[in-house]
User: Fold these one by one.
Assistant:
Number 1:
Amino acid sequence: MIEVKNLCKHYGDKKAVNDISFSVGKGEILGFLGPNGAGKSTTMNILTGYISSTSGQVLINGVDILENPIEAKSNIGYLPEIPPLYVDMTVDSYLNFMYDLKKCKLTRKAHLKEICDICKISHVRERLIRNLSKGYKQRVGLAQALINNPPVLILDEPTVGLDPSQIIEIRTLIKKLGKNHTVILSSHILPEIQAVCDRIIIVNKGVIAADGTAAEIANKLTNEHKMTVRIEGTKRTAEDKDEIVSALKAIDGVKYVRADMEREKGIYDYDIESDDAIDVRRAINSLCRNKGWNILMLQLSDMTLEDIFMKITTGTMEAIRTTDSDEKKNVLDDYSIGITGGMAADNGEDNEETEGGDE
Amino acid sequence: MGAIFRREMGAFFTSGIAYVFLAGFALFSGLFFSLNVVGSGISDMSPMFSSMFLIVVFLIPILTMRLLSEEKKNRTDQGLLTAPVSLTSIVLGKYFAALALFIIAESVVFIYSIIIALCGQVVWSTLLGNYFAMLFLGAAFIAIGLFISSLTENQMASAVIGIFVLFMLYLMDSLAVNIPVEFIQKALIAASFYSRYIELTRGVFDLSTIVYFISIAVLFNFFTVRVLDKRRWA
């Protein structure tokens, strides 16, 4: 449906979009996630033909947006960041205008009524857009995108300015639309993307930082092989610590063990990391049973999509690199999975994860 | 193009610009009609038409000021430029909406012709000659105004620059006389809107003037399309 190849957009020296490639299939809901200024809106504006790319190609339904813009655009319904509403018109006259502008062939009355019902704006059709609240303006913007039933919907931050119940409504609506439209949705709100999208692309500083389903990205970066365990030794003193660390290190598959703080008197937490493929939890349990130690707590370092997003986008990666080298290596190894582009080069040489790269 | 034409026509009236324009045109043409035509006891409306040049210089930028600048400011251009329509039809839709309103305003002269017909003889050939001279002048000015509107996001700036540019065109002859370099002087006089227009209102029908005004209109509409196109590449 949508194919984007090596898209670049430069503003002078600034690379707003730097070599982005992805494709979206029919009936897929793609979430475009990134902090402000990551290049989300720029990418969407290029996809819809509002601005041109510096280089690269965009195909909508197989039609190049630059070579045959009118045909390509007729396949797209676009809701920009700021809905393009003429505030001096009534909702009804505006929708009729967009209907004419898009040269829609569907029955006017029935089609507009259907769209107004979907977007729940039927009761404000006679009102001036100027007098509508932000939420209603957003819905009118969505309604105009739906006119002519385009196979591709591109929605730039569709829930901005809506109240919580409206947000849920719009999300439900987008999910519904996703059944027979291809939808690209941008947002910097994570739960939204998680709730609505089949697939997520995280962009940062103009490049794709991650691409996959929410579960995929989460699984890849959330490490089941990374956990914190609180073990009570037999002596309940600091001496236990070294013994436990060396015993844990001896377990097959454990890559890294570090004793953390003394959480209870004489009892320490241990950060354990293991190889991807091996679940060491049972081995740890049996070790403790044999030695007569007690596991008081076991916590997988459950990285939420939010953490991943924050880490990828806020430059924590830079910070990580400057901290102690062991930790740096491990964290970078974790990130190397699912992170493509610039980051790939930074994985240490001893990158053991075989599935590396981008899914 | 049709959709944009209809929307712009509607917007002229909801924004009140249409009323200002129509009233301004009627007021000044009426004034010149009563003073220079009825007052002088002649049935030829040419003096009124020549005086209207300067009025049009001030009125047309008001008509065109918000056509494209407001779209850019309110980001409604995103709706237009991502719709399956060509840039040319966007520009022409707006252009012809403004031109249509200008024609409506200008047609007030036919009311004056009724007044003249009541007490004298209307010379239709002169009247129509004048009418079309003004129409083509308006066509050229509107294209220039629309072009200026495409350059800015601020409609007041668009109006001020528009008035300035059209006023300079009005002054072109007087400026030309003071330029010592002969070929520049000749070029400016040849390009002069005012002297060409005055020739027409005197009943000298010159096809080259009509062609000149139409060419200006086409040229500036083309420039406007280029500005919109170039903005995508910025």
Note: Chain B touches chain A at residues 2-4, 6-7, 10-11, 14-15, 74-86, 231-234 (CB under 8 Å).
Number 2:
Amino acid sequence: MIKFTNRNLAAPKQMRPVYVVAAGQSDFRKHYPEKKTEELCVEAFRMMALENNLKTSGIQELKGYIHSCYYGHFADHFGDQLLGESVIHDRLGLDPMGNVGIKTGGATGGSAMWMAANAIASGYSDCVLCMGWERMDEVDTWTGNHYISTAADKDFETELGHIYTGYYALMAQRYWKTFGKSAPSFRRTMSKIAVKNRGYACSNPFAQAPARISVEDVENSPIVADPLRFYDACLMSVGASCALLCDEETAYKLSDNPMRFWIAGGSHTLRTADRRHMEIPLLPNERDNKEIAKLYHELKGGDKGGGEKYPGFTGFLAARMAAHYAYEMTGIVDPITDLDLVELHDAFTISDIQTYEDIGIKPYSRGPEYIESGDAYLEVPRDGSFGKNLAGKRGRLPSNLSGGLIGCMHAVGATGIMQIAEVFWQLQNRWSYFHEREEMWTRFGKTKPKDFVNLQVPNAKRGLAISHAGVGSHVTCSILMHPSAVIKK
Amino acid sequence: MSKQAYEFNNSNPNATVLRRLDPMVIEKPRAPIHIHTYGGETPFFKGLTEGRLMATKCANGKCDPSGKEGYFHLPPRVYCPDCSEKMEWHDVTDLARRTAKVHTHITVERPGAFNRVPMPCELISVEIEGVATVIMSQLRGAKPEIGMPIQPEFNTTNPTFTILDLSWVPRR
């Protein structure tokens, strides 16, 4: 039984407030031979500099503010370029300011934002660039799967099939058979997530895989690693995302509408094998809660024991820890009532459900209720997949309106920044500018669909983004708040 | 693996192939060899070739919890994750024969490139009494189920000198 001290669990501190001031991104594609990675990064940077209502005369004046740079690029072997950070930094024209590369697998984008925020919070820099990118199209999909599988332990896991989805699926299978009880209704909830996120991607001009599909389409798609099917899995992508972070004075010098920003990180073993058990670290909405205490006692097998060990294969400890730190920093108690939207790391439909539990949207074992209650939707679908009492109602905490990793993209180093950019624009009430205008669609050679839906969350003031790596090796939890809606002064 | 993918990964290392003119896209093949050491974990991999499952245990009685609770680590660790003292090696083959069972499982049908396991492969995580961890491996000769009693088998006749030399079958 592993234990933590109060020092381990202490709330992280920012020595001064951090703001997100601007964001930008390229569009995302499976193959992108038309453009080099450097071009995609410069295009994201140009969007950030020129389309965020900054009070500067242009790009060169903005470059005069940037003091240090934080680059998220996960896979040197995919990009086939060591020190790619230097290539991007040069093309952005930001020499001689210091830059550093950050890589934590799928959480690379979140971790880059974490380090960028710390540079502001500590006083090291007043204005920093955080940029993330990935190029996954230089090799065929099966070599790509091999490359990704080297993010497992190369001696003890990678040799076993060279397929990361399989290592993930071991956890999915355990969750599916224990908490999910192998029930068709649980399978249906997973399918609804795939339908939801691909559907939201239809209103996102940046998105790689928009699709109007049905629950039946998901359940009839080919099995990748049982119970995970083709439509349950995220994308492989090429693209770039970036954000500008500042201290308070610089934030308001550059913008009339910056957002407060907090971020924290947690970790857990790379090998699923090494998940030793512990007491469940409780989040604010679970403490002193008799119902939760009873439920968690039952999950362990009651007085007799023999139930699920925590975190076992059913929870992501790193996500729970990141949420713990972020909620302690910001004063969030109940994510459903305290937040207006979330962008979660939906690498797979089942890990999305697991994350609902890790970050306290629902208690452990009850993640599917977030979908089935309709709360995860901006508007609950009227397609018959929900009862008449719910159809058409507004959800309390819409999730992955960008389309997430399943519908929008997973250009690994960019993913965590894309999620934060989407939340940022929502809080600025500028979602429509980046998604609804015809020009945004024609820019990427696309036609705006006839069934486009406005996904701006009305009056959104607070949002959360989860960036997640491996089988839960690294997770960051970001919180953005409108300055008028800060909870903990 | 598809034939096309195989050829793509094993082309003549000297050949550069033009794939597309505008934008210009070229093929850059390569086949590097890595020289890799198992270092202090050698007893585990050597053990597999000799038909033995080797695990490590913390011998530091003051260590909390690895030493105090006295459990095995498998995969083995050279140093204790809790007190960072060197761990001791133990043969847990008999323990595994008596108590191992399937914790979770999955069938892999489409492996990544460079895979050497015959497909489909039954991937399993293995629970063993007194072992704090749940090692990943492969089951042969049966469809796995959660809780299924299993025992280890070792490829000692024609070893690959990798984790693939360990597999599991239903307990007889």
Note: Residues 42-49 of chain B form the longest helix (8 residues).
